[in-house]
Amino acid sequence: MPLDLVQLAKKTAAIIRGDGTGPELVEAMIKVLRACDTKIELIPCDAGSEWWQKEGGSSYISPEVWKLLEDSDACFKGPTTTIPNPNAPSSVAVSIRQKFELFANIRPIKTYKNAERQLNFICVREATEGLYAGIEFGISDDSAIAIRKITTKCCERIVKKGFQVANYSGFKKIFAITKRNILKKTDGIFWTAVEKTQKEFKNIEVEEYYVDNMTQQLVKNPERFNNSVLLSTNLFMDIVSECASGHVGSIGNVYSGNYGDDYAMFEPAHGSAPKYAGKDKVNPVATILSGSWMVEYLGEKDTSKAIFKATEDIINENKYVTYDLGGKATLSQMTNQIATKAARLLRK
After folding, report:
1. How far is Cα 239 from Cα 286, in angstroms, rounded to an integer?
2. What's the CATH code of the domain at 159?
3. Do the Cβ atoms of 284 and 335 come closer than 8 Å?
4. 209 and 120 share a domain?
5. Burial class (CB in 10 A: 0-12, 13-18, 19+), 289
6. Which residues constitute the domain of residue 64?
């Protein structure tokens, strides 16, 4: 293909609406991106438990949507519900991470001006193995076993990503989170990858924390982790990043990206909150900022920067914020304010 056609080729993103509050949050995110005149083709589609309960099958994702994901340059996943039933499929997020080897889940923890605590660190989570590999089986009528699969390959690539994120962010420290005194084999593999990789990044200090102590410190003294990367295996970092999210004002503020070598999925860190579905009530920030990260990944850096700045301004002004942030604004009211401000910033 000629170079000029390559440069003009339109980027595409599959947009999974999700379950519960997902569709209205995704609509809000799309509204902000379009207000900022995104050139990315956004292709909405359905996947998740609500779709599955109507259509059935072995996956929450239809073959047609899988094909759409494969043909897209990136994807966005609105909040989805995973049914806690042994006969239900693997979650949408886990399925996509494993299919496209999106091994790095990245969640920034950064508070806003009015927050009681001023925090700024990044959680980097391995996202394809561990207990999320889903290897479990019954051994009798009243007992079952789950296998925590940990491999050198997956540990080395997530650890390297953690060091790269630290370097890119200007951070000089990584906290590696394990339970190596108990899980000597599996966490031993992870720690070996940390020691090996640190030799390539000699400017970055490493300190090991056991996961139980880490959660205590995140409650008691989270400031000690400022300007650092928290790095761990799948389940440990899922728990740690959720604990850390409690300091950001609301889980509704926490955005994330899942990165592989040549594909990425973006999603808010929170669940689908079905009891609030259709009530125009929930916080759109995590969804909007995850979408902003997606367009940055696809090349629209100015758009992303404007959306982040607009969102920060709206939260700091504290006038048009949702109930979980102490305000009275609806989802759509807060979205409209972010969209208007971001579009204005881009015109300057």
Report:
1. 18
2. 3.40.718.10
3. yes
4. yes
5. buried
6. 11-111+251-348
181 domain residue, yes or no:
yes
CB-based burial label for 115 (10 Å; 0-12, 13-18, 19+) = middle
The whole-angstrom separation of Cα 69 and Cα 63 is: 10
- Tell me: the pLDDT tens digits for 73-97? 999 999 999 999 888 899 999 999 9
Q: Are residues 25 and 130 in the same domain?
A: no
Per the structure, the count of domains in the chain is 2
| Domain co-membership, 212 together with 264 | no
DSSP 298-325: TT-HHHHHHHHHHHHHHHHHTSS--GGG
Helix axes 92-99, 63-71, angle to 10 degrees: 50
Residues 212 and 131 in one domain: yes
Residue 272 falls inside a structural domain = yes
CA 224/CA 228 separation, integer angstroms: 9
CA distances from 25 to 157, 159, 271, 284 (A): 32, 32, 11, 6
Q: Length of the chain in residues, anyone?
A: 348
One-letter amino acid for residue 1 of the chain:
M
Q: Which residue carries 């609030």 as its tokens?
A: 276
Residue 255 backbone dihedrals phi, psi, to 5 degrees? -105, 165
pLDDT one-digit tens code per residue, 205-235: 999 999 999 999 999 999 999 999 999 999 9
User: Which one, of 266, 249, 270, lies nearest residue 20 by Cα?
Assistant: 270
Indicate the pairing of strand 12-16 with strand 41-45. Answer: parallel
Listed residues 218, 247, 276: the one ending a domain: 247
Neighbours of 95 (CB within 10 A): 18
**CA torsion sign, 95 to 279 to 34 to 104?**
negative
Q: Which amino acid is at 323?
A: Y
User: Domain check: are 42 and 79 in the same one?
Assistant: yes
Six-digit token string for 118:
């001023």
Distance CA 49, CA 79 (A): 11
For 148-171, the pLDDT digits (tens) are 999 999 999 999 999 999 999 999
Number of H helices, E strands in the chain: 12, 12
